[in-house]
Structures are given as C-alpha cells and as structure tokens.
Design goal:
5-stranded parallel beta sheet, alpha/beta, Rossmann fold, 22 helices
C-alpha cells in the first residue's frame, strides 16, 4: 500500500550538542545521507555492547527511530517512540520523537491518535529557539493541517476538541470544521464548553470491558468477560447494587481498540477494564489519558512498562519489569545489607531492560553497580564473562601495581573474590541452572539475585545446591488453597461450566473489585482515579496490590528464596 505520510527531513539540525559522541555523529551523518540501513546498523552495533543505561541512547535512539520510520516499520516506530517518551520525558529530542510517533500513527490510519501525539510535541515547543525544534514545529503543523483537512471526521474532531489539546492544535482543527452535523458547526468556546462533562456529574454505573472476543486472543477475552460478569453478579447478590456491563471487542487489533475507545467515550462509560494485551492496552491508554475527567482504566494483565505513565487515569494490575527490578534491589539493600552489585545479563531486550531498571533502583538507594557484563541468550559456556568479572575485581584491587606482577597473577588465578550481590536476570531456566553452577566454579562469592524465572520448576529440579539461597522477585503466586480463591473457582465453575484460567481470571477479578471499591468512594471520574491512586496493600486473588506513590503501577511484587528445592517467601 502506498505510504500516506512521510517524515519531513531536517538535515543536520538535531540538537545533539549535548551528546558529543562519535557513534551519534556517525548515525547523524548516515541519516543526513539518507542511508537509513546504516543508521540501524550503527544503533544495533552500539546496543550489542553498551549497557542499557548508557546516556548516549538518549541521543542515538531518536536517530534510530527516524531511520525505522523512513524504512516504513510504523508499528516499531510506535513502540520505540512510546518507550522513549516514558524513559526520557525531558529530553531535548522529545518534540521530534512525538512528531515521529504522529507520523507513524497517521500511516497506521490511527488519525485521532496521530493528532494527540503531534499535539504533545507542539505543547513542548513553546519558548524554544533551537532551529531543529522550530523546523519540527513546522512539520507538526503541516501534518496536523493535512490530517484535519483529509482524515479527521466531525465526530473525531469534536472529541479531540474537548480532550485538553493545545489552543494551537484546536485552532487548526476548528479551521477545517464542516457544518455536516446538525446543519451547523459549533464555533465558539462557550459551545465547546457546553459539551464538556462536568467534574461534578455522577459516574455512569457501567463497566466497559475492552477485550478481544474474536481473533487470535479470543480465549483470553472470553475468560475476562466471564470473570467480570461473575464479579458483578456476586457484587449485586452481596450489596443489591447493580452495574451494567458493556463489552467492546478489540479483536486484538490496535486500530479496532482505538475505535472501540471512541465508542466507549461516546457511551459515557467511566469505568474501563482492559485491554488484555500490552499493545492494545498502550493504544487505549494513549487515548483515554487525554480524558482524565471522563474515565479511569485498569488493565489487568498488560506487562509493558510505561502504560500507566501515559496518564493519571491509567492503572496496571500485573507487575511490570521495572517493579520486579526495583523490588529485588530494594530487598538486597535494605534486608541483606548489600551495597555493591555486579550484573550478568542476557544480551536481549529483557536483559537490557532489567539491567537498566536494576541499575536505576540501586543508584537511587545510594548503592553501587561495580561491573556489568552480558552474554548471548543461547550461550551455554560463560567462561569469558566470568573471567571478565574476575579480571575487573582483580585489577581494581591491585590498581597501583603493574599488571604482570606475581601478586596480581596469583590473586587472579587462585583467590575467591567477593562480589556482594550478583544480579542474574535470566530469560530462560536453562541459563539460570548453568550460571548458578558456574559462580562457585569460578571462585566467586556472591548473593545471587534474580527475577521470576528462577522460580521455574526446572531450576528447582536441576539446580541442586548451587541455587540454594538464591533470592528473586516475582508476582505472588495465587494461593489455590485459600478459602477466597476456592470460593471464586467454585462460583466461576458453577456459573460457566468450566474452571477459570488461574493466571488471567484472578487478575481480572482484582481489577473489577478495585474499580468497584473506588466507585463507592467517588462521585466523578476524576475522583475514581484519585481513589485508585491511593490503593495500598489491597489483598486480591492474584496478589497484594499497591498503586500508592507509583503513578498507577502495581508494586506488589514479592521476594522469594530457594531453599532445598522449595520456594519460600521472604518479603
């Protein structure tokens, strides 16, 4: 299909003065020469060796996103842009990234979301004298004008105009308004204000469920639907209070999700459960975040970081990678009194993300990351990595002695080296077993710290003594022996003729119960979000849930310890 929208190129005008880095300059030069494949290669080569927290990424990543945009991978541009915005919200490159997100959304025919992204970029232009920012502003205004003229219908236009967009964007949208609706077009701010829902109006007693009832993930959507209907029925039996349930089929599609969210808003639904998958949850959050006075959304199962950060009315029940990394770092520092850490992580997206989040958490608590090393996820031999660890600590110990001295060589060859904490965020149980065995083999003394896969049954069965005392963060396991869980399972089975999925159903049940509790304390949609943000220590079916002080992200992770092939909760 022919491309609808192209990035307006601004040659050599990016504000990269703060990143006087050879890699950034090479990527910038390649982009100015339209050599987009070279930009991708430069980024990937740098990413293979650099730590995830390397500050160069702030300036290199926008060039990479722009190259991907020119190559036509708009889904990837969307993912990368949202990730960048969440990680570097105050970057001088943020206006350009919002522009690239807007271009991607336009090419994906998600026109309202394109306008929202472009407007966010426009809001951040004010006062800037940087030439590249001003050129990007012109590109944003040009694309907004084109979208307003050709792609935004009157219904979408009216929704956007009451969503809190900037005056500049509103002026562009109003300038292309037609009189097709009702014979006339509204033209005054008073008319617009009349359409805006009052902050004091009572919340509509309807739960809106955004799930895939058709498509690849229909089974998950059906489980969510059955769970919500059960929870609402039990609530009515217990309290006499009846809530309506309206289901919006996202079909697992980002485009359909955006359409369903607009329908949901038109239906004045204030309490939103879902979506199920991270990609569609991100889309829904991006739209609903523009309407904090009209709706609150809880996604029960999405795990991507940054979804809740899109708006004050967006919440995530399932644990994110950041929550898990923060939990294990906090436990090691506060409970195990570890102050120095080494990281050995897989060279994949998971390893890079966990390294970055763990490093950030450790630094924020005044502790230190001494050394970071990576390995291929498919590796079975980690000698090079462990030798690098030994060499680093040996060289640091003997920093004032010549490298070839007998004392240095003897220490490197024979001594047991204490590391403090060794963070191993494995992406497969096989890696966990192999790495744990090689720690004592290479004469390293460390408290091994990990993430959920350390609790895998293969690690417990095959790890033996080498995995004893490993501490790792994870979601609290559903206690199938508890009276509350058994009661839920029995009620679900009785109502639907089948047992529930005990991964998805408890999370959905907790999301609905949290929303119902917030409703009982609220008169407006804005108050819904305010009350959800105060949730702390909520005892759900899936786990303990807390949103307080976390910008809507559940921090209810637990820390487990392996002891004699069994898992014990220690925090």
């Amino acid at each position: 299909m022919k491309k609808l929208f192209l990035v307006l190129f601004c040659a050599l005008t990016f504000a990269f003065g703060q990143a006087n880095d050879r890699t950034v300059r090479e990527a910038q030069r390649a982009l100015s020469q339209r050599n987009h494949g070279a930009v991708v290669q430069i980024h990937e080569t740098f990413a293979d060796t650099a730590s995830a927290g390397n500050p160069v990424f702030e300036f290199l990543k926008p060039l990479y996103i722009e190259a991907i945009s020119f190559l036509g991978n708009h889904e990837e541009v969307t993912r990368l842009s949202i990730s960048y915005i969440g990680r570097y919200p105050n970057s001088p490159q943020i206006v350009r990234v919002y522009y690239l997100l807007g271009v991607a959304k336009a090419n994906l025919r998600e026109f309202s979301q394109a306008v929202v992204a472009l407007d966010e970029g426009l809001k951040r232009v004010a006062g800037s004298r940087d030439r590249s920012v001003r050129e990007t502003e012109r590109a944003i205004r040009n694309l907004l004008t084109r979208l307003s003229q050709n792609n935004i219908d009157n219904n979408e236009r009216e929704v956007l105009l009451i969503s809190g967009i900037s005056d500049a964007t509103a002026e562009i949208l109003r300038s292309h308004r037609t009189g097709a609706q009702g014979g006339q077009a509204a033209t005054t701010q008073d008319q617009q204000a009349g359409r805006r829902p009052s902050r004091t109006s009572r919340i509509n007693k309807t739960i809106g469920l955004l799930v895939p009832l058709t498509g690849e993930f229909a089974a998950l959507g059906q489980t969510a639907h059955k769970t919500v209907s059960l929870i609402l029925a039990r609530h009515e039996e217990r309290t006499g209070e009846k809530f309506a349930l309206k289901v919006y089929d996202t079909e697992g599609s980002a485009v359909k999700t955006a359409q369903r969210v607009n329908e949901l808003l038109a239906d004045s639904v204030s309490m939103v459960i879902g979506p199920i998958m991270s990609n569609t949850a991100t889309v829904a959050a991006a739209v609903l975040s523009q309407f904090p006075d009209r709706a609150a959304m809880i996604t029960p199962t999405a795990t991507d970081d940054g979804i809740a950060a899109l708006g004050s009315n967006i919440f995530q029940v399932n644990l994110t990678s950041k929550a898990l990394a923060v939990k294990i770092a906090e436990y090691a520092i506060e409970n195990l009194n570890v102050r120095n850490f080494t990281i050995l992580a897989p060279l994949d997206d998971y390893g890079k993300v966990m390294t970055a989040y763990f490093t950030e958490a450790v630094n924020q608590r005044g502790a230190n990351i001494d050394f970071i090393e990576h390995y291929s996820p498919s590796a079975t031999d980690f000698r090079r990595q462990f030798i690098a660890v030994r060499e680093f600590f040996t060289n640091r110990r003997f920093a004032n002695r010549p490298q070839g001295s007998e004392a240095v060589s003897s220490y490197l060859a024979d001594s047991t080296i204490a590391l403090g904490g060794l963070f191993l965020p494995v992406s497969s149980p096989e890696n966990a077993v192999q790495l744990a065995a090689q720690v004592p083999f290479h004469r390293l003394n460390a408290q091994i710290l990990g993430t959920p896969l350390w609790g895998h049954e293969r690690v417990l069965a095959q790890g033996g003594r080498t995995v004893n005392d490993v501490s790792f963060s994870a979601a609290d396991r559903v206690d199938t022996e508890s009276e509350r869980v058994q009661s839920f399972v029995q009620a679900y089975t009785a109502k639907h003729g089948e047992a529930p999925d005990l991964i998805v159903a408890p999370l959905v049940a907790d999301a609905v119960n949290l929303m119902l509790r917030a409703y009982s304390q609220s008169n407006t949609a804005a108050q819904l979000s305010e009350n959800l943000m105060q949730v702390s220590g909520f005892q759900g079916l899936s786990s303990e849930i807390s949103f307080k002080g976390t910008a809507g992200v559940n921090t209810g992770a637990v820390v487990n310890k392996i002891s004699n092939r069994r898992i014990m909760r220690v925090r």
